[in-house]
Amino acid sequence: MRPFAYARAETEAAAIRAVSAGGPGTRFLAGGTTLYDLMKVGAEAPERLVDINALPGLASFDTGGRRELVFGAGARMSDVAADPRLVAEYPVLSDALWKAASQQLRNMASLGGNLLQRTRCAYFRGGEPFTCNKRAPGSGCAARDGIDRGHAVLGGSEACIATYPGDWAVALVALDAVVDVAGPNGARTIPMEALHREPGATPEVETSLARDEMILRIRVPATQLGRASTYHKIRDRESYAFALASAAVALRMEGEVVREARVALGGLATRPWRARDAERGLVGQRLTAEAARAAGDAALRGAQPGHHNSFRIELGARTVADALMIARQRA
Amino acid sequence: MIGATLVGSSLAPAESAAQDTNARDSASGGLEMRFTVNGEARRLTLDPRASLLDTLREGLALTGAKKGCDHGQCGACTVHLDDRRIASCLTLAVQANGRAVTTIEGIVPEDGSLHPMQQAFIDHDALQCGYCTPGQIMAAIACVREGHIGSADEIREYMSGNLCRCGAYAGILAAIQDAAPKMQAG
């Protein structure tokens, strides 16, 4: 591992100043579960880490607001997952957290850092002799003719088909969350859906954040949709694995009829993937098994299979359909 | 081990440990840090790259926590940081600055008997080779304290971060179910 300098910031302003002034090799350090892991495999090689774990207030969260739920970027996944109000009123958010990683990692990982976790693509993690346009832009994508069983069927490009691995971001996208960020030029708010980018020709640029911008908090509009919601995650093993396919869904029902629906996909796309066609098709419909399956098909329309991952298109459609039926039970 | 050497590790107990909680560059180029390990104040100078796991094992000779994958995937390195279970291989040692670490060596009662969870692992044959056992026990103790023992399924879910290649999972589950009321009584 390349040597690096370490400093612990005492204030937000000092942290941003240090990362901004430090140049391209300087990075924020929160839980470290992704960054330190990738430093060990050489996919990340920072020269300087600015530890933001001591910043006052960054770890607080409030799920009781009438207008919105507010999550400090430094809050730990385990603490938020166990919040009783979230469990009862926003199961899609709680599920997305406790179904990710292990309790050890959830105790370490922050909500903001979790949004920025990088792909599990084995060619990205492995590096040479394999090519990867994220690691070395322009070098090529070994996954395109390699083992692409876990790679994206939605949102890929010639340059990259790496799957966005997270769960929490998918649930947030479904609920129209926003993130407040701060940088050397001040603060701004980014819709969750605009935080992650599709790879296009520049897969090394994964988010719309500048390197020296820090996520301060995540805000979710309070909504009745939260109650009839779920994060349904299908994996190779029942627990502690990344999604082969997942669906965050939330419903507002009037009797048997869907009045409003949110559908987002995880594990299938290069970024958290909102499925608006599926949502539109559900509104005004009775939520039968057939209607749910049709929504699943709509969510996966346009999916591009590679060599080993075509089964995940069918799996994705079924995951959406099952998620809708689970959420309906909670209405 | 990747670049996790300790620089001039000082094992002398620090008299006023945990008062100065801001790790800083020392003259030697390493970072000075103070933390509490199994109730004992420690002061170290270390390379910022050092993981908490390597620091415990190689700097402090506490070899109970094991290195399995070194990537947070197997749970063999599980210790408690401020009473919460974590993967010590994915924790920079400097992140433990000013905090309290408990390892498997630190859970034994003062009378030298075994912790109820250790005894339960023996009673239920919850191991074969034993390599994952310190991590399993530290995770299991935390699982009980967190209250994630409502059902066998809940225990399995909240113990999924600890892999056992020998497949002693049935015994591990039985051990946790046996030890939980004894821990709560104690």
Plain-language structure description:
The complex is a heterodimer of chains A (331) and B (186). With 331 residues, chain A is of the alpha+beta class. Chain A has a domain at 225-326: CO dehydrogenase flavoprotein, C-terminal domain (Enolase-like, domain 1), CATH 3.30.390.50. Chain A has 13 helices and 12 strands. Chain A has helices spanning 12-22, 35-40, 77-81, 84-89, 91-98, 103-108, 111-115, 122-126, 168-174, 192-195, 276-282, 289-300, 311-329, and strands at 5-8, 26-29, 48-51, 61-62, 68-72, 178-183, 186-191, 214-221, 229-234, 245-254, 257-266, 273-274. In chain A, helix 5 (91-98) runs antiparallel to helix 9 (168-174) and helix 12 crosses helix 13 (311-329). Chain B is α+β, with helices and mostly antiparallel strands and 186 residues long. Chain B folds into 2 domains: 24-105, Roll (Ubiquitin-like (UB roll)); 116-185, [2Fe-2S]-binding domain (DNA polymerase, domain 1). Chain B has 5 helices and 6 strands; from the N terminus they run E-E-E-H-E-E-E-H-H-H-H. At the A-B interface, strand 1, helix 2 and helix 6 of A face strand 5, helix 3 and helix 4 of B.
CATH topology name of the domain at 225-326 in chain A, in short, is Enolase-like, domain 1
CATH-wise, what's the superfamily of the domain at 225-326 in chain A?
CO dehydrogenase flavoprotein, C-terminal domain
In sequence order, what are the helices and strands of chain B, one letter per element?
EEEHEEEHHHH
Strand content of chain B: 5-15%
Unreliable spans of chain A are none
- Helix-residue proportion of chain A: 25-40%
CATH architecture title of the domain at 225-326 in chain A: 2-Layer Sandwich
| SS summary, helix count of chain A | 13
Q: Which structural class is indicated by helix and strand composition of chain B?
A: alpha+beta
The coarse overall form of chain B would be globular
Residue windows where pLDDT falls under 50 for at least 5 positions of chain B: 1-21
In CATH terms, what is the fold-level topology of the largest domain in chain B?
Ubiquitin-like (UB roll)
* N-to-C span of chain B: 39 Å
